[in-house]
Amino acid sequence: MIAARRKAKIDQKRMAQLLDVPATVAQPPAIRAVDVHKVYRTRHTEYHALRGATLDVARGEFLSIMGPSGSGKSTLFNMIGGLGKPTSGKVFIDEVDVAHLDHNELAWLRCRKIGYIFQSYNLIQVMTCLENVMLPMAFAGLDSDRAREKALLLLELVGLGHRPLHRPAELSGGQQQRCAIARALANSPSIVLADEPTANLDQKTGGEMIELLCRLRDELGVTVISATHDPKMLMRSDRVLWIADGKIVRSCTPAELKAEGGGHHG
Amino acid sequence: MSEGLNKIEAQPTLPWRVVTSVVMQGLRIRMGRALVTIGGVALGTAFLMATVTDRIVTSAVSVERAARAETRRMVATLAADTGPLENRVVAVIADRPLKENENRFVAQLKESGASEVRVAVGTGREGITKGVSAVVAVGGPVITKEELAVARQPVVGVFEATARAPEGAVVVNLTRPVPEEEAAALAEQERQESVRLIWVLSVALAVTVIGVSNAMLMSVTERFREIGTMKCLGALSAFIRRVFLVEALIVGATGAAAGMLLGLMLPVLRYAAIDYGWAMVFSAVPWGQLALGGVASWLAGTALALLAAVYPARAAARMVPAAALRSTI
């Protein structure tokens, strides 16, 4: 294991190969949502969470989504994350129409195409960092030797290479989130979805996490979509979307946001 | 179908080895909770096994006691016609191997003070009746007049009606038919006891199943974020279901084994140390039957734990991946 780590530091070619860095050519959008409606029905009531949300997310884009609670932000997040299907409208994730997928194929999509980062890290508490990062690769059917090698590389990449055998409870919040980011990258997804990734972290650690996400975007070309209210995160984004009442009501750049004096909350 | 569909593949089903390793990891870390569930299964199985052991031991002991009493009665019946057997000789003539009760009878004759018991099975009966106080016929041999003539007393004890004694012999029927009403009363008592036992056992086992089910449901609720996260990472519902079923299997088999040993040892020790004595218990207990009961109890305990996990496992498998996004708990 230690040998594998040492190897990791020198073998950049192997790393690029393992991490499957995509070529930087013009590509179709990572995510396209067209007129997405989502209605939650209970026996007596209907709740329209999304009322015609449309968006494109370019490959390699760093996108932030803002919106008050009840705005449909979480629902939109679920739709573009392959966690559910729209009631009407289309969602394409990496050019795949989600509506046509069954449970099994959705699981495949979540496993290979999307990496999830959660507000409260959601590491599997009973597993070590290394095992957490290896888990999505096990789900993808990768043999454990290769999975271990790649997991150690990823932990190295997020700055956690020195404690692969610690359990989440033994790590600080920032370290847990680093581990979670490594896990999100396990199957070389083209999209990373981050749900309030800095909300449980202090200013400094949150800033480090944002830098890490930006670095991954730059180096690996992944698309990063995050739901956030963190001004630092908004400022580093390529684009900020506001969602209110189930629709996307505004799209702007951080520069425009700054010009207004920031702090605009939908 | 959409243009991207050809890129989608089926998510591979993970081998049981992976499922088991995930389960073992969870059990090791959450040992406390596992022990509670194991305890539940163990108690239920112990109750079942204790009942089984109790029945086997008590019935074996009562059969043994009845056999001993019956043997004493036979010897007493014989002695009623021969007089006390101290220092007397008895001949046993058999045309087939002796059965257990007949062997016991021979042993009891010696215990009653008979100086010699000559046994002839099939052949070798020449002259053995010389000077005996009684000739005992086992099976259907014909005791001849000559044989009886050399005996000290003309007493013939017979086990079965097929045996023949010559004219002038005093024939003593050693076996007796069980009185009909006595047998009927015994059967009725047995039946009632069985009904009561089955009832009590069913309730106890149902309580175990519900208890284990409850514990597992709690552990599903406790882990809903973990389950949601696994689904986000690409776990299939079948994988989640298997994780919970395998966990139940391991917990169930362990608990049932512990319960089986407990339910075997406690009643045996109690009966041996307090009620019947070690010698009685160890000579009377049919260990093969007890071992069979143990295996059956273990299987039953494991099966019940598995049954208890069916609903929780399904609840876990149905959990939506979006559950991982909820930040409470």
Short structural summary:
The complex is a heterodimer of chains A (266) and B (329). With 266 residues, chain A is an alpha/beta fold.
Model description:
The complex is a heterodimer of chains A (266) and B (329). In chain A, the strands form 2 sheets. Chain A has a 6-stranded mixed β-sheet with strand order 6-7-8-3-9-10, sandwiched between helices. In chain A, strands 2-1-4-5 form a 4-stranded antiparallel β-sheet, with helices on one face. In chain A, helix 5 crosses helix 6. Helices cover 38% and strands 23% of the residues of chain A. In chain A, helix 8 links the parallel strand 7 and strand 8. Chain B has 9 helices and 5 strands. The radius of gyration of chain B is 33 Å and the shape is rod-shaped.
Name some characteristics of this structure.
heterodimer; A: 266 residues; alpha/beta; Rossmann fold; six-stranded mixed sheet; globular; B: 329 residues; 2 domains; 9 helices
Summed up, the domain count of chain B is 2
How many β-strand runs of chain B?
5
Shape of chain A: globular
Strand percentage of chain B, roughly?
5-15%
Indicate the overall shape of chain B.
Answer: rod-shaped
Percent in strands of chain A:
15-25%
- Strands of the widest sheet of chain B, in order across it, are 2-1-3-4-5
By CATH, the architecture of chain A is named: 3-Layer(aba) Sandwich
Elements of chain A, N to C (H/E)? HHEEEHEEHEHHHEHEHEEH
Q: Roughly what is the average pLDDT of chain A, rounded to an integer?
A: 86
Count of domains of chain A:
1
Could you give the order of the helices and strands of chain B?
A: HHEHEEHEEHHHHH
Largest sheet of chain B: 5 strands, parallel
Oligomeric state, counting identical vs distinct chains = heterodimer
